[in-house]
């Protein structure tokens, strides 16, 4: 028989015995003569063999970090999370694309746990944090500081692969899965200033619901976080009055904050220079109530300090409206998980010139036929991006009372994003932004990247901000196709802020708990985002993080804030 026929018979016989041997035989047949004594299995064959072996193992569900995650350099060690009903112990192997030695660890399995709570924030109107059934079935492993430092070093700009293998009785491999992640070259390079609040809705004897009883206002804290540190630093607490939205100028030199005055006067706004030790006094207060009458409500909604600190942009109801209920839809719920809906249905954009002390409407964003809100500055201060919708009565006759977030009885409004030149206060013609308008959704809370290239905004079915269905989207600043951020979690994504270098976004989410936490995502030059990275230990497990904002200062640039209230006597403590 011809030699080729014999080889063919060998070939087909081997095929019947298994595909693996076919690949090996083909390799032998086509080896050069000078390598005939050495059989090398190609990479593709080794990969096939590995996949064949892994196919018999039960799949582990690795929940965190997600595949493709990007960690900022210097962040504290994360806790790896996975679910595996089969294993009783696990090996964690981390290999690196830079060919450095892998890291190996073992785990007998620690369950996911609830962190410490703040006993002062326990109330009949809320529930203690609890694990979901999925979380209760989750196993954890946390690298120590030295392990994590090595992991970050060897995953810098190249992939690390984490393989978790489950064993039964520590002997036989039974389950396995892996994820890949990298450590970015881009530093976060700025601290995060945020409000830390209890979720304690309160009902009055008359049935009215408040998001927080007046007696508990002092429980609101303001913190600052360096992600390289294991915990946050409290800079302000024990306020005798309510303070809300805050903003910083892009250069990190000016700070603004809403502060309630006497008799629940919400028409005050503080503007002060950023310092290590900041003191807010009556001389630093801007009175939105220009008539000087307490109770003539001129709430400045979502006030924003300009990049150079010279102006403050805000939403006002206009001169013909003097009551909060005429221009805002506000409903508070007894459900602590989503305890308030608050958004304007009428209003115009106005700006304060700090040099002159005058507040003026911004032409082109002052049309009473619309509500114009959420105004933010471009990095160069030359234009404004804002949300707009047709003006409407917040509570028309016959409208039922909403009992929960996204109730059909809420005032229905869908905002669209517009751009207008600031033009030294002269304004101009507003133009809709493609990708964030006329899409059947409510587009709101825009934030422009520091390089002016991108806009990230919230999209939801109705209203704005902290909605159960809120998702983050990115578009080119000039408009274009909107892309959903990969970092979006299953429940509420909002209150976002850009890092000064434009490579990181911080945002709040209720993905893991009704008690809101904050997360990071990396944004590259093409506007691509990465899976969410949790900022651990930002607050007690029964408190919520909101309004996180990157501040363009050194991590220790703010140590203490004092607020001297109207009587000039009481001063907010610093938590030291």
TrEMBL record:
Gene3D superfamilies reported in the protein's UniProt record: TolB, C-terminal domain
InterPro entries the UniProt entry points to: 6-blade_b-propeller_TolB-like, WD40
Official protein name in the record: WD40-like Beta Propeller Repeat
SUPFAM superfamilies: DPP6 N-terminal domain-like (SSF82171)
Family the entry assigns: Belongs to the TolB family.
Organism: Telmatobacter sp. DSM 110680
Superkingdom of origin organism: Bacteria
PANTHER family with a match to the protein in the record: PROTEIN TOLB, PROTEIN TOLB HOMOLOG
